[in-house]
Task: structure prediction
Amino acid sequence: MDESIPKIYVQIAVALPVSGTFTYTVTGDLADKACVGKRVLVSFSGRNVTGYILRIIQHENRKGLKNIINIIDPYPFFPPNMVEFFEWLSNYYLYPVGLVIKGALPTGLNVNIPAGTEMPHKGWLDRVGLLKKVFITVKKGTAIDRSLFDPKRSPKNEGEFLKMIIKKKEVSLQDIKKTFTNGGYLVDKWVKKGFLKRSLRQVARDIEGENIFISPNPPPLNSKQKEVLEKISGKLKEKCFFTYLLHGVTGSGKTEVYYKAVKVATELGRQSIIMVPEIALTVSMASLFKARFRDRVAVLHSALSPGERYDQWIRITKGEADVVIGARSALFAPLSRLGLIIIDEEHDSSYKQEEKLRYQARDAATVRAKLSKALVILGSGTPSIQSYQNAVIGKYGLLTMSERILKREPPDITVIDMTSFEGSPAVQDDSIISPPLRQAIKENLAKGKQTILFLNRRGFSSLYLCRFCGEAIRCPNCEVSLTYHKQGNSLLCHYCGFRIQPPDRCPLCNRENLKAYGFGTERVVDKLMEVFPEARVERMDRDTMRYKGKVQQVLRRLENCETDILVGTQMVTKGHDFPNVTLVGVISADLSLNNPDFRAGEITFQLLSQVAGRTGRGNVPGRVIIQTFNPSHYAIIAARDHDYKKYFSQETGLRRQLNYPPFSSIANLRLLGNSRTKTEKIAQQMRIKIGNILIKQSKGKKDIEVLGPVETPVAKLKGKYRQQILIKSRSPRYLNQLLKKVENISAQILSSSGVRLIMDVDPYQMM
Ligand code: ADP
Ligand code: ZN
Result:
């Protein structure tokens, strides 16, 4: 057969920042190997780059198309039903489809070499690759018995060694060497004798330290859980796309409902994805599922090593998992029989990715589910305004579990007005831990109970200020002041990581008048040790949790009651279940409230309700104390009263008035440049062009509102000056159309200006 005659055509996305897809021909033997989801090597603008096969095309009229160079993979990396999903992401978030796929796949799989370069023959196809291990087995047709060795002349553990191999039939060399120090020698000896055999086999890497003990036997569901499950099962059996919002207060037993839902899906032959907001929480969720589903569980998150992630991925593509558990990126699990996606704590902002493809995993999950005719369950004690509104208008089904398991009482919440301690002689002391909170901690300690204190700011103090000229020490790269960290005696930028020793003199007036103001978690711990010297205090924030496994250690000590008081940032607010924690203190509710962000109230309400949910999970009712300078703010009052509905109606009232989501769709166009004036100028030009586009547009322009450009609240970040233009639209479709036009003209405006445009659709971070 003529090698040069194309057999088939393939539609390829290349892993480069270019828009659109490309058609190549496939000839000869390669044509039989081509299938959707495999990587190929193609020549593209003078380079040999990785591409992904999106479609096989039988007929094509265009002439002169290029041939692909090679097919890289023996098996596809994603099933065909994900192609449309990748395309939707690319279209909605305005991001090249090849880069969408590259970001979804395990890292380290990309080939990008100048054309004409000699290909390295080994290892370039699969730089990560599956781990291969040597296994030792008894050779077929042989039998080992005691007569074969002389106990007097052999090493004394030889009998034991043989017994182990005969019993287990197959043991990895690594395990043998772990058990017997002379394992290597013993294997050699018996292989030479012709009784044992070495063989190389691919294995999935163990994900280390990942399990905590959970009873494999689920408790019987209570009547509310049963009722909810019945609705879920009903929908699963219909095998149609649908979304349920499960509004279940913290401690209402949502996890057991998730487990049963996954079980039903599995029995129907369909696979599930469970997403949790933090990598640390995948551990407890995965432990529960592993205890009950054994090795039919896969785990995907960004803290896995490239090799571990690769192994999990391959297991999933091979159909070896019924359920995939992970953080945001589990959305991309290459399941071909997807039937259920569960998103726990769906309101959590960590589902939004803030770099590269700026997707919101929760929203994207409903699209993936729709394409796979799957069911989505969004679970939360404090649903996002967006999701609850969708339930209100009937787009989602609403399921409610408003009581805690065993009818445990919700915690009693007290709000402390911190303005009343202003001007007292003990101001400095009282502003960190007010007298009522101090009293409550004291009583709790006396009862042998545990306390969690929450403050969403790490470090010792938030400002390092000259008392003479008022100048704060600032980061040279970002327009923010530096935070003083006592540990390591340094001033640190929380945005870019810049670090210096605190200067002795003010850089402006040269006086020795510098002092630290404000407080962070480190200072709270100091204060506690001063007030309660006998208490065992631990801190959990990004500074103390640098090392792998550290979070688990701290949580385990809390669980074992080796810690009396845990102080932490929002890491402590999520998910955990510790029955002996009966007091939660919020050191300052004002930090999140004062953010220049239309979601500030929503985030505060959620944080307060979530952290309050950490207490009273055992038999003793819990107590919560919230310190704030805004005691009458509606978000704080609603959190105090456990009144989600009231909060929802107040918040949606405001959003409707100001035309913010869920009553509009918004996009944030951020312009980043090295020069302040240049960035400002480009932003203004961009604004004018957007105005021109809108004038020409016939439809939908009345529904679009353009705000800015303005400097972002943090006007300079990591050395870049920042401007933003906010676009609000009544319709997501018109917004998308406008953004595409903006993208088309942006190259011209930005060309050689040194200014970069980032489009953030449905933005979360407004800083
Ligand atoms: P949520 O995720 O809604 O905050 P969890 O799923 O963590 O709540 O459940 C809270 C606690 O109740 C857990 O310790 C869980 O094991 C327990 N639990 C859940 N369902 C039941 C049940 N039907 N009977 C007894 N205990 C249950
Ligand atoms: Zn900085």
Q: What stands out?
A: Confidence is low (pLDDT under 50) at residues 120-128. The chain has six domains: 7-114, 131-203, 224-309+322-405, 412-458+521-656, 461-518, 665-761.
